[in-house]
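REQUEST
  id: r-88c1
  op: predict_structure
  target: BTB/POZ domain-containing protein KCTD6a isoform X2
  payload:
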Amino acid sequence: MGEPVTLNVGGCVYTTSLSTLQRYPDSMLGAMFRGDLPTVRDAHGNYFIDRDGPLFRYILNFLRTSELTLPCDFKETELLRKEADFYQIEPLIQCLGDPKPLLPYPTNTYEEVVELSSTRKLSKYSNPVAVIITQLTITTKVHSVLESISSSFTKWNKHMMDTRDYQVSFTFGPCDHQQEVSLRVHLLDFISKAGFTIRNTRVHHMSERANENTVEHHWTFCRRVHKVHD
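RESPONSE
  id: r-88c1
  status: 200
  body:
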């Protein structure tokens, strides 16, 4: 398992192995401890993550066993779901299921929606599995969000495939697919900081060709906005 790694998550200190943290390479932790994302350390040299410390216990146990085990009287499922969304551990997100339907919004408000999708084509016969091509697409009618993404993510401009009404896309080839993971994590954080919360997450697996598999990840973000009356 290699040398132990110590993390400070919201003030709670955990010790685990690097292999445990990298169990799901496409997760935020996988990208973080692969070197694709910047890390922060506390005064004692522990990796610091500014998230819910007590709930990280369940995240870490899932990484260790790939099983979700919760106390019978556990009452923080919705909070744990948000943590799973933040860390982008897809199997855990699926274990937790879709969130409960939201109550109707008041009549003086409406909902803005941002859709983020990742389409990844994988080679069936390579070991380890090789990514042939992957594409990230952001779709929303909130024009200011698209403008902010286009201007804030200039590091990835060379991967931008298309910019249309309501949509911007980035495409990555087989040699730089890890950059897609980094961009995806940054986009999830960027959209969340814009006041949007994840409504649901879904994963879809397809086999279109004899030598390819396609995996689609989809996130729906929503935020409540007050209507402006003339």
